[in-house]
Amino acid sequence: MDRTYYIAGIIREDDGSGYSVYFPDVPNVCAGGTTIQEAISHATEGLGVALLDLAEQNREIPAPSALEDVQKAVQSIRREDGLPYPDDALYQYIPAPSLDRVPVRVNVTIPRALLWEIDSKARLAGMTRSGFLTAAAMAYEA
Questions:
Q1: Which residues are CB-neighbours of 21 under 8 A, at least 6 positions away?
Q2: Please, which residues bridge with residue 102 across strands?
Q3: Residue 101 has what pLDDT?
Q4: Calpha distance 94→44 (Å, rounded)
Q5: Distance of CA 112 to the CA centre of its chain
Q6: Which of 57, 77, 112, 114 is most buried (CB neighbours < 10 A)?
Q7: Which of 67, 91, 70, 96 is nearest to 4 (CA)?
Q8: What is the pTM of this model?
């Protein structure tokens, strides 16, 4: 399965507040950070949330644009907002999450004590074992 990437425009703000991130292709992504690394991490998370939200609403997932088109769109957004467009604007490819949400049955081996703990925590969270493990995997940051 091929991976899809969207181009994020990352702009260092003149006021020293950090970096703002723009995804002209995807509506409702708001991301930024005090460092480039933090901005990219937040951009990745924001892109994932926005695309999954579109998928859950059965709305069309926009296709990624070419770099030149993203650059022009970010420049236009900054101009419309009355903000400068710096010469050192950074553009980064950000991987989109897989939107394939078809459940697949798997067989895993887990120590009995850990399985009991998983089931206990799932019950406390009002979730199934599968839902709990899926949520834990989605929340995990390497």
A1: 8, 9, 10, 11, 29, 31, 32, 33, 39, 40, 42, 43, 46
A2: none
A3: 67
A4: 6
A5: 34
A6: 77
A7: 96
A8: 0.69
